[in-house]
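TICKET: design request
STATUS: open
ATTACHED STRUCTURE:
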């Protein structure tokens, strides 16, 4: 700047004229800048407000603000910002001061429209000088939909978390090295661990040592070929015990959201126990049947059961095969008439049919059967299995009958006893009231022959009172010919103090006048057999309880016709309930004993295509001797259903009969939840992308405006500084 003290008067006047021109130029430029701001303010599509910082009075609102809030320009100028902002007045004033001091320029507020609606907005505020008056310049952006989308996402995440916490399947994610990266919360419900107990640990740490190598092979295969792998292994619970789980692993390493192997596993311990118990109980039953010294034949009944041709042999025990000198493969599948051509004349078919119809056991007394190969006396006990088959337990009593005809009265005591058993024998003379107990009868109770006297009172002392009464009543019926045979189970006290189970059989001997003169009978110790029966019954009851109370639908089918068809032998309550929920009025009796084909085509009316599709899985399970896992989608009554279905083969090496356990786990709700979650995720991604693009555009505009305002303020400040210097 020139030294004014050294200038002449003319030079000073010239300088003054130059200063006035500069001052006029500054004022004109400032005026033009404000005009440009107001033009931008009024016509810009962004929502803009000018606010007095101290009072909150709205100085101006552009057209976009008037359209957004629903107020006219005149109404706006009569309002304060607290009329729009729903926050408390003190809070709004505090935030305005922050904006005025430039401590904060971004806010999220609830703003009230003229209609009363509350919208969520984000506000960018900064101080601005207009006509020497400091105001707050606010740019408003409506983010209501964005906030709603965030809230919706939170709700979805909350629902997803609740669903994950309560579903029966546990979900986890592991890295390619086996390190656990995620564990669903419901693992604590099933196995005791909390998610944080497992995250960061190795998958193999909680696996039974005997299963690790087998599972690692599956895991490595999954990493290479990326096909879904399913494996069963023992998982260690927090209490230290192991549970059997079924694990399904899916390779999702290339999915950014997962970046690992997705695991779904569920507790199948009860299913394992059921399968093992089923095998054990079946094995015990077969073992029991094969060890008794009587022929046992199991028949499937076809047609009306009126002929021997209607009884198809399903099993012969060892004693029966030995008696007939046949191999099992030469008997199974044939009819009773094929091996006993004259069976229709024997009279037992009527008994078979009666048992088949009523379910009540029947005894068919000894009668001679004659054909080209046999001339034997047989007595039969016939009963019906729960599965519908008829069982005949028969004894060849030919020798006994011949002995009865030939033996003299002096030999009757021993020979008549042998009609029942070779164990304990007693012979009671009803005329003299004397009784004989064989050494075996006494030994059964722990006594030597000379330790018990042959006295009728001995029996009364060793038997329980209620059994003594019942036995006495049955003996009177036998004596009075009200029954042909005495057979009763009761308990007798052993020498050592415990009780043993006794099966007593007896027959009466009559004189020529029909008067009962003797009762000859046997005692058999059946304690071990009773215990076996109790265990077998308990085992079957336990299996039945598990079978009928599982949440999965289950059907047990027996392979027939060389594996070309299957007959349903059991269905659980869940399966029946599911069918009825789908509109089928089906009971267990409608399905048991029916073939898979008959049920599929004639009862459920699913069609040939569905039957062929289903039969393929049954046959595959038998042929591969491995369980088949398949996710099925199907439509019933115009409604989509999803299930995870297992076809589990069960083999019985003793009789060669194969079974398939169909287990269907309903995953419809899970699939629907996954679909809804995916749909919401895509919608949210699109919405966030759209809003992000809009925000980026608006931020660029705001940055441009801010740069413009900052530049203008800087130029004005320079002009003011120059004027001050000129004045000096």
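STATUS: resolved
RESOLUTION: sequence designed for all positions
ATTACHED SEQUENCE:
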């Amino acid at each position: 700047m020139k030294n004014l003290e050294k200038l002449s008067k003319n030079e000073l006047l010239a300088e003054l004229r130059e200063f006035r021109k500069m001052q006029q130029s500054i004022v004109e430029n400032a005026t033009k800048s404000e005009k440009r701001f107001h033009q931008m303010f009024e016509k810009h599509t962004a929502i803009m407000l000018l606010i007095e910082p101290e009072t909150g009075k709205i100085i101006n609102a552009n057209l976009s603000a008037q359209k957004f809030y629903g107020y006219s320009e005149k109404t706006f100028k009569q309002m304060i910002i607290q009329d729009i902002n729903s926050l408390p007045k003190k809070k709004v004033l505090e935030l305005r001061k922050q904006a005025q001091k430039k401590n904060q320029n971004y806010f999220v507020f609830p703003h009230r429209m003229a209609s009363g609606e509350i919208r969520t907005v984000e506000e960018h505020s900064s101080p601005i000088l207009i006509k020497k008056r400091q105001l707050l310049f606010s740019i408003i952006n409506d983010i209501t939909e964005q906030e709603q989308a965030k809230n919706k996402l939170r709700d979805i995440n909350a629902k997803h978390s609740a669903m994950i916490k309560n579903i029966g399947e546990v979900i986890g994610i592991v890295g390619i090295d086996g390190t656990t990266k995620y564990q669903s919360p419901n693992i604590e419900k099933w196995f005791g661990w909390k998610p944080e107990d497992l995250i960061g640990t190795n998958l193999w740490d909680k696996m039974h040592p005997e299963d690790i190598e087998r599972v690692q092979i599956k895991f490595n295969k999954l990493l290479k070929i990326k096909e879904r792998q399913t494996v069963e292994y023992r998982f260690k619970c927090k209490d230290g015990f192991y549970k059997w789980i079924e694990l399904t692993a899916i390779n999702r390493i290339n999915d950014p959201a997962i970046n690992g192997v997705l695991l779904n596993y569920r507790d199948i311990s009860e299913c394992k126990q059921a399968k093992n118990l089923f095998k054990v109980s079946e094995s015990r039953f077969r073992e029991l049947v094969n060890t008794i010294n009587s022929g046992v034949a199991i028949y499937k009944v076809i047609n009306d059961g009126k002929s021997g041709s209607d009884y198809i042999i399903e099993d012969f025990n060892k004693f029966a095969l030995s008696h007939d000198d046949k191999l099992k493969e030469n008997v199974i599948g044939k009819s009773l008439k094929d091996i006993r051509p004259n069976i229709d004349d024997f009279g037992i078919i009527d008994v078979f049919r009666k048992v088949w119809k009523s379910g009540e056991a029947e005894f068919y007394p000894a009668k001679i059967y004659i054909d080209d190969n046999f001339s034997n006396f047989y007595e039969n006990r016939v009963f019906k299995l729960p599965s519908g088959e008829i069982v005949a337990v028969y004894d060849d009593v030919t020798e006994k009958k011949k002995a009865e005809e030939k033996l003299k009265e002096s030999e009757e005591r021993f020979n008549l006893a042998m009609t029942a058993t070779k164990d304990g024998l007693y012979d009671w003379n009803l005329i003299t009231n004397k009784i004989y107990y064989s050494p075996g009868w006494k030994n059964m109770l722990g006594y030597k022959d000379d330790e018990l006297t042959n006295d009728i009172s001995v029996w009364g002392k060793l038997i329980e009172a209620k059994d003594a009464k019942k036995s006495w009543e049955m003996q009177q019926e036998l004596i009075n010919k009200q029954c042909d045979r005495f057979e009763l189970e009761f308990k007798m006290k052993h020498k050592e103090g415990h009780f043993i189970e006794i099966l007593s059989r007896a027959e009466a001997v009559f004189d020529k006048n029909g008067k009962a003169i003797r009762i000859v009978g046997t005692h058999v110790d059946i304690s071990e057999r009773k215990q076996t029966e109790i265990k077998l019954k308990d085992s079957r009851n336990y299996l039945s309880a598990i079978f009928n109370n599982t949440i999965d639908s289950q059907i047990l089918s027996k392979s027939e016709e060389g594996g070309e068809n299957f007959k349903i032998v059991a269905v659980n309550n869940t399966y029946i309930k599911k069918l009825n929920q789908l509109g089928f009025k089906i009971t267990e009796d409608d399905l048991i004993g029916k073939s898979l084909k008959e049920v599929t085509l004639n009862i459920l009316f699913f069609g040939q295509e569905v039957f062929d599709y289903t039969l393929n899985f049954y046959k595959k399970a038998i042929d591969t001797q491995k369980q088949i896992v398949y996710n099925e989608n199907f439509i019933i009554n115009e409604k989509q259903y999803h299930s995870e279905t297992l076809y589990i083969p069960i083999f019985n090496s003793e009789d060669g009969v194969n079974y398939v356990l169909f287990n269907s786990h309903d995953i419809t709700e899970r699939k629907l939840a996954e679909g809804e979650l995916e749909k919401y995720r895509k919608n949210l991604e699109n919405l966030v992308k759209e809003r992000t693009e809009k925000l980026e555009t608006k931020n660029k505009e705001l940055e441009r405006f801010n740069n413009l305002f900052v530049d203008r303020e800087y130029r004005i400040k320079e002009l003011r500084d120059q004027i001050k210097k000129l004045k000096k």
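CLOSING REMARK: The chain has 23 helices and 25 strands. The chain has a mean pLDDT of 80.
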